[in-house]
Amino acid sequence: MTERMTLVGFMQAGNVTVYSGSWRYPSADLSFLSMDYYTRIARTLERGLFDLMFFDDRLAMPGVYGDSVADAVRYGARPVKLDLTAVLGGIVAATERIGVGATYSTTYYDPFHVARTFGTLDHLSGGRAAWNVVTSVNDSEAQNFGRDTHLGHDERYDRADEFLEAVTALWDSWEDDALVLDRESGVFADPDKVHEVGHRGEYFAVRGPLTVPRTPQGRPTILQAGSSGRGRSFAGRWADLVFTAAPGIAVAQQQYAEQKEAVAHAGRDPKEVRLLPMAYTVVGETEAIAREKERLFLDEYVHPLASLALLSEVNNYDFAAHDLDDPVTEEMMAAGRGIRGLAEGVARHLDRPVTVRDLAAHRATLLQGPRFVGTPSQVADGMEEWFRSGACDGFVLAATHLPGAFEEFVAMVVPELQRRGLYRTAYEGTTLRDRLGLARP
Q: What are the E-state strand segments in 183-240?
């Protein structure tokens, strides 16, 4: 366990947070098509000394449910996804210290493009760039890139492993001292310190070198979320930060131990990798205020068809054939890797068979990970319990609504965490790796 919590702000470049009812909250800012919206949130998180803000992404509207995007559009179930390169560029210009990260797919992009994008971002941000590695999840994304269906689970990870091999080779193709910049002699850089990559594998052929010199971090920081055995193995090899989902502290402790073991098995130091479950905080001046906010989030703002649109998307399974009150069957659970785990997690909280409505509510509200609700002291109590018990090294905090959820957390909970010695009181070092205490590759 690390000495102080790592905190990451989880973002979407669109109309909702990961909570699909967030746009309906009365005080939510709906100017998500303006740069000011994102820079305001970034400055709030930087004021709260967050290590990083990173943006989730999908490369399609949710269109699996009923083979249509209609309900996703009608009910605001993540139909808007802005290009992250432009969004992060604006955030970099508006901030000084906080890390900035984006999701890029190893299934639908190419290694040279990703290496150049994040190498550039690392330079222009002064060493603050992070890449959230995903393999993509559904057929809707495949169909936006000229394919009928997405790759199978194991093949996606085979491709991702080779993708990372090519990207890291490109990032390493310039040695640290390759740039000479000698005006008098006219020598710009030492060609003996700039190397072709010459990668040729099953999925990619990349000559190199990269057109971006070695970056301030050496390599941008890598995030990855993968709960399957193959996903944990991949994270053990590549990730600096592992984004997890755990319904309770006991599961999180088990995941923590297993992922650290996977890191060691890959020949890396487990202390060099942070495990960060996604969590919500609902904070109020009194517990009663916080509980009423929680009730509103759970009961008032999520439309069930928005829930089903997102549930179908993430599991690549069309739930339109089922009524909301249909029980979840063995056949349904066998149809998608994520459905069984989700159903089993929901079942722990019920004394009756799990229905499609239960799955949808779990996916679209606040039930996917720990939820810390109450006064600043009560929220800090919950976070401290997870942190000190070997369940995590910090948290990826998802917002119930923006910008208010992050503003309340920074104003009320951060000072309490600092008072307990759980959280920094100032940024350390100059790069994101410095602040995370990670070695420069």
A: 187-189, 199-200, 205-206, 221-224
